[in-house]
Specification:
Strand 7 and strand 8 form a beta hairpin. This protein has 8 helices and 12 strands. The protein is an alpha/beta fold.
């Protein structure tokens, strides 16, 4: 089941960008543009009425400077509900960041932001709350995160540890073009001093082992993208 994320952002353009990127990686999103409406939606989501309600949101992305009720005020009201919150705001002072975190937010991101960084922080928060999916399914490929096992149409695939990590990164960023530098950072870490050609070798192996020759696309002069 897709995880539900509430986007509370009054800038429609930014809200739509966030929605687009979250939908690309299969999150279900709801957009709201002011604090009072967000409070009502959050409270309603907690009420289960004979299966008609979709259930609580799994995470909230919350701007601070929104009309009706600002993000800090809204955070004070919803903190007892236990829904993780990531503040996303143009307020850059240390005081504002500390205030947001003291109110109970899981993270605090400053605009402008990179979509891939937001997705990574969402993933981190989801993992912290035990909301991360334990299996990912894609075109006959089943990835079991806890056991670090992969099957292709029911048959076990033998992947190296880095091949497995690379596959997970591609799956969690589906339809997003990742540069070789981004892949190196996510899979090999900041302390890796090798060449980006090692990524090409690992991608070649994944394509062959998982029958994904037509799905892992090379993005010219950038890197790779896993496509639906």
């Amino acid at each position: 089941m897709s995880k539900r994320i509430l986007i509370v952002e009054d800038d429609i353009h930014i809200s739509n960008i966030i929605k687009m990127n979250l939908n690309l990686v299969n999150y279900e999103t709801t957009q709201i543009y002011d604090g009072l409406a967000a409070l009502e939606a959050i409270q309603n989501s907690m009420i289960q009425v004979s299966g008609s309600a979709a259930g609580p949101f799994d995470l909230i992305i919350l701007d601070v400077m929104i009309p009706g009720m600002d993000g800090f005020q809204l955070m004070e009201r919803i903190r007892p509900l236990g829904i993780p919150v990531i503040f996303l705001t143009a307020k850059t002072t240390v005081f504002d960041k500390v205030n947001g975190l003291k109110l109970g937010a899981e993270d605090y991101m400053v605009k402008p932001f990179e979509a891939i960084e937001l997705l990574a922080r969402i993933e981190t928060v989801m993992r912290r709350y035990g909301k991360e999916e334990q299996a990912i399914h894609y075109k006959g490929v089943d990835v079991y995160l806890d056991k670090r096992e992969v099957t292709v149409y029911g048959e076990k695939a033998e992947l190296t540890p880095k091949e497995f990590d690379l596959l997970v990164v591609l799956l969690k960023n589906k339809n997003i073009a990742l540069s070789r530098e981004q892949i190196l950072e996510k899979v090999w870490g900041f302390d890796f001093y090798g060449e980006t050609r090692t990524i090409d070798t690992h991608v070649k192996e994944l394509r062959k082992k998982l029958r994904l020759q037509d799905s892992i696309r090379t993005v010219y002069k950038i890197g790779y993208r896993l496509e639906d």
